[in-house]
Structure formats: structure tokens, C-alpha cells
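Supplementary notes (optional reading)

For those who missed the lab, this is the record we used. Protein: Quinone oxidoreductase. Length: 327 residues.
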Amino acid sequence: MTPNIDTFRFSEFGEPSVLAFKAETLGEPGRGEIQIRHLAIGVNYIDIYHRRGSAPLPLPSGIGVEGVGVITALGEGVEGFSIGARVAYVGGPPGAYATHRNLPAARALALPEELDSREVAALVFKGLTVEYLIRRCIEVKPGDTVLFHAAAGGVGSIACQWLSHIGATVIGTVSSTEKAEIARANGCHHVILYSQEDFRVRVGEITGGKGVGVVYDSVGADTFARSLDCLRPRGTLVSFGASSGPVPPLDVASLSAKGSLYVTRPSIAHYTAERGEYEAAARELFGAMQAGVVRAPAITTYPLHDARRAHEDLEARRTTGSVVLLP
């Protein structure tokens, strides 16, 4: 049976208005694919990069890389999954902003029964991002001090929880007093309002002039250069996003002058490409959720058909925590 579905597609890069909500007929899943009916869909900044063209996709394209759903059909050669089972996924061809979709079975993750679908949709992409950032890109250990920009955002909120549980000291930057309270509630030890004070100065004061071992920076243009100044000698800047715009060109020689620093620009795609790593990371995340180490930050929900408004609010920084679309 081929269901009629509602889905977003776009044929040009640009503002949220380029997203077109369409009715389509979904074909049968191909070899190695499953078909799912979405229960909840995560909205992430990578969706905005795709829509803008700063991380361009071949057009026309669907949009969205994260969701939770129920399997409704299995393609040829699929093993280990059954119709009616609930799964989550991150990655694969964009197309999550839809009532139903076909998905490579290799991206599907079986869900523990006790985990709520909305909470998983709010957490799985961001949680897997945090997992690779703090456990594999840089293994943060008890006693380490880190600086995390956008500490009240979707990724930042989860990171503050997990880092605090590990035993690290977390310094976070936020844009408002409201977001400062959110960051503190999630385990951030020192909160800096970057709109009111120079975070470089405050990091120096907090660390007694030593600097931090690692800076996690998803903001990009507005923070990158000053983030380097917050590092201790041989520290690492992890640049994993650019919400304020692309990072300007880097003079590599300056890394030596500032203390033999390291800079990396990781991608979740490279840290979850192998099925074994992907499943192991998911076990870590789902275990942390079940243990109460990581919980969903504030979840803002929008009807699926309101995805354009969700993008507008996310870009304008009117949201906190995670954004979820409901079919």
C-alpha cells in the first residue's frame, strides 16, 4: 500500500518561504529501506543550513534529518526490524518534515519502550551530537574546565547536563537572564551574558588566567576569534556550527603564537557513519536518558504544517531547548 503523505520540499535556497508543503504519494520502500509513519520530528540548525544553501543539497530536496516513527513497511533485505516497531533516526537523505517517509534501515535505531517519542525527537540528534563532542572528539574528564557557547540552546542544555554529571566545570555563554537561568538549571556552573560582558575577560577571571582546556563553539563568526583567546596552552577549539555566520579565514601560525592550540571542525556524519559506532553512541545516549543523566530541555512544539514558523523562531533565537514538529 502506498500512503498519501504531506511533506515539505524546496527547489531553491533562501528564507523559510522557500519551503513548500505538498501532498504526495509515497512509493514502497526500496531494498534496504523501511517505511515509517512519523510520531515526532526534530528541528535542527542543520535544517536551516540546508535551506539557506550554506550546507547545500541537490535540489529539489526534502528537509529534516531526525525523527521518531512507527515502521509501516519493510523493503527487501531488511532484517532486525518488524512492522509496528518504534524507531528513531539521525541522518540519511533529508526528508523528515513529512507525515511518512522511506528511510535506509541502517539509520534506524530501536527505541526502549519507556522513552517518550517527543522527548527522543527532541534529544536524539542533539544528544548524539553531545555524545561525540564530549566523549570522542574530545574526551572530557572529571576536573576538566570547558567553555560551551549557547549553553541554553538544544545542544548546550544537554551538554551542560552531561558534562556536569561527568564532573567537569562548565562555563556557558547565553544571551539573556532568562537563558542564564536555563543554563544554571541544566548544570552550568558559571554563566556569562555575552551581551553584557566580554566572555574572554570572564573566562580569565573564572580560571585564574589559566584558560579552559576546550571551547565548544556553534556560534561561529561572532565568537571564533575570541574563543581562541579563552584556551589554555595546547587547548582545543571545537567549532561545530556557525549560527552567526561562517568562521573567517584562520591564520594557522596564530595557533602557535596563542599557545600551540588545536582547532577541529567535526561533523556528526563522520562520527556516526559506521553502524557499530552509531549504535554504540545511541546506547550511551538512551542509557543516559533512562538513568536521568540527560533529560529533554524545554520542548517547543509546532504542527508539521507550521515548519516555516519554526524556522523563523529558531533563526531569531526566540526558542530555548529543542523544537519538535508534530504530524
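If you only remember one thing from this example: The longest strand covers residues 33-43.
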